[in-house]
Amino acid sequence: MFDRWLYPEVAGSTPAHFLTGCELSKLPNTGATTRKWRKTGQEPRVGDIVLVPEPGTTWSKWLIGRITDIHPGEDGAIRSATVKTKQGTVTRSARSLRLVEPSTDA
């Protein structure tokens, strides 16, 4: 019943062999940059009116504000934004901001 384990070749008994039916000869390329991960939709712009999510609060308690400054990363993609709200100025991740009304500047 377990005569498979008597063979000296152990490459066939790896988890990859049982999942795919053959051994993995190389690792998959996880460093590939695809368009899916680079494109986030409409980029935030100065003048946009946004909702600023606060951790631990419901969406009805989120602050509303206007983007006054954007902060791009090393690759040129916009990573964070400074938002002026009724309670002051905050800096938040661009991904966490929710667009309410785009700016009218072209």
TrEMBL record:
<feature type="region of interest" description="Disordered">
    <location>
        <begin position="84"/>
        <end position="106"/>
    </location>
</feature>
<dbReference type="InterPro" id="IPR040676">
    <property type="entry name" value="DUF5641"/>
</dbReference>
<feature type="domain" description="DUF5641">
    <location>
        <begin position="33"/>
        <end position="97"/>
    </location>
</feature>
<protein>
    <recommendedName>
        <fullName>DUF5641 domain-containing protein</fullName>
    </recommendedName>
</protein>
<feature type="compositionally biased region" description="Polar residues">
    <location>
        <begin position="84"/>
        <end position="94"/>
    </location>
</feature>
<dbReference type="Pfam" id="PF18701">
    <property type="entry name" value="DUF5641"/>
</dbReference>
